[in-house]
Amino acid sequence: MRGAVPRLSLTLLAAESGARLCAIIHYLVRGQLGWFGLTIACLVPGYAAQLLSILWFRADGHAPGCWLLVLHLLQLGLWKRVGIPCHGGSCRYWDVLRAAAKTGGGAGEVLAQLGDVCVLRLLEALLQTLPHLLLQAYVVVAVDPAGFIPGVSAGLSLLSLAWALVSYSHFTFLLKPGHLSPPAAVILCLLLWRTGMLGTRVLALVLFARLYSFWVFAVAGVHWLLMSFWLGAQQTDIVAQPCRWRLFNCLLGAVYIFCYINVRPGPSKSRVAVFYAVSTWNVLYSTWM
């Protein structure tokens, strides 16, 4: 199952990238320059993940060449090299697949490389795929309900984002002592849960934006503030420096508008209950107003 995770991640990444390119060409051909520009703008935050990939590459002691910089400028760094320092200094989707095939997915090096892939892909999905999903979903709901290409692009972005969260959860599950790779049925249930959770929140915000325009930022802002203060009250110790700790809570609070990511060890039932209570209020408020 461990080898199937990067294989499916690579497939969804290719499908999502292809659909995004089709959406860009679709808007350009139809002369919808506003939506064309906004779709292009959604690509910009993804360079943060590409920059992190280069920094991790340098941390391995390898000076990035011109060809590697070009790949990252084209946002193909995740295909070529992702991750923190690994045993071989080269963590790629292809390396994970090849190592998993050789070792049967049980080697520690495969687990380290899989973690690199999952972490960097999750970062890219939250920074790039999520804004693209919101934009294309708004186009389908409020502008062009019959738009096939934006609809397909939104659907693949939703599935890719959900799978990025599932693959991250799968990796954290493998890190626990004595835990084996979960069966396919468990992975499927996680994927359905993440897809439904993301889909309902995106749909609620899009419908609210259609009816009340920029007031959607007020609703999302209240949700973001509640989540950020709640995270601060938990005293998470992932980041030690006070300024970076506040920034981390603010960024994760924005993520919590759409999905829950466990950042603390130990039982998380109470934290999940609080997250769903606030999220349910936000969805109901956005839907009923």
Automatic annotation (TrEMBL):
Membrane-spanning ranges: 33-57, 137-165, 185-207, 214-233, 245-263
Pfam families listed in its UniProt record? XK-related
Q: For this UniProt entry, what is the primary localization, expressed as one broad class?
A: membrane
What membrane topology is annotated for this entry?
Multi-pass membrane protein
GO CC list = plasma membrane
Compartments annotated for it: namely:
Cell membrane; Membrane
What keywords would UniProt list here? Cell membrane, Membrane, Transmembrane, Transmembrane helix
Q: Mind telling me which InterPro entries this protein's record contains?
A: XK-rel, XK-related_scramblase
Q: Does the keyword Transmembrane apply?
A: yes
Family as reported in the entry's similarity comment: Belongs to the XK family.
Name of the protein in question: XK-related protein
